[in-house]
């Protein structure tokens, strides 16, 4: 016999998945097989689990922007071009 899916079950499946629950937990909570839960989630678009934020990347390192012609940025811009090795056209920095 085929399992009947209701709006309430679909809503509960979506909610549990959005809370980050895995397929085993959802299957136990809804009283269905893991395969049935995964297939239903695929059909209703509830397959993605929310990504946990990486605690190390919460606050990226912030630095002041480098001025035009800085050797680090100028060198990166001209590397592999005919200007490679030439100094910035205006004499702001000396290496």
Structure in a nutshell:
This protein is mostly helical. The chain contains four helices and no strands.
Task: Give a topology summary.
Elements: H1 7-18, H2 23-30, H3 34-44, H4 71-78
Characterization of the model:
The chain is mainly α. It has a domain at 7-44. It is 41% helix and 0% strand. The chain contains four helices and no strands. Helix 2 (23-30) packs across helix 3 (34-44). The chain is rod-shaped, with a radius of gyration of 27 Å.
Q: List SSEs in N-to-C order.
A: HHHH
Low-pLDDT segments, ≥5 res: none
Residue-averaged pLDDT, rounded?
83
Oligomer: single chain
Main sheet: strands, sense, barrel = none
Distance between the termini: 78 Å
Secondary structure: helix percent = 40-55%
**Overall 3D shape:** rod-shaped
Going by helix content, strand content and strand pairing, the class is mainly alpha
Rg calculated over all Cα atoms? 27 Å
Enumerate how many helices there are, as a single number: 4
Q: How large is the share of residues in beta strands? A: under 5%
Number of strands: 0
Which tags fit this structure?
4 helices; 95 residues; rod-shaped
């Amino acid at each position: 016999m085929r399992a009947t899916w209701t709006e309430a079950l679909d809503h509960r499946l979506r909610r549990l998945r959005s809370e980050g629950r895995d397929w085993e937990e959802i299957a136990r909570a809804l009283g269905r097989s893991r395969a049935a839960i995964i297939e239903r989630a695929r059909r209703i678009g509830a397959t993605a689990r929310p990504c946990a934020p990486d605690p190390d990347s919460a606050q990226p390192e912030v630095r002041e922007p480098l001025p035009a012609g800085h050797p680090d940025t100028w060198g990166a811009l001209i590397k592999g071009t005919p200007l490679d090795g030439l100094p910035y056209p205006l004499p702001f920095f000396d290496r």
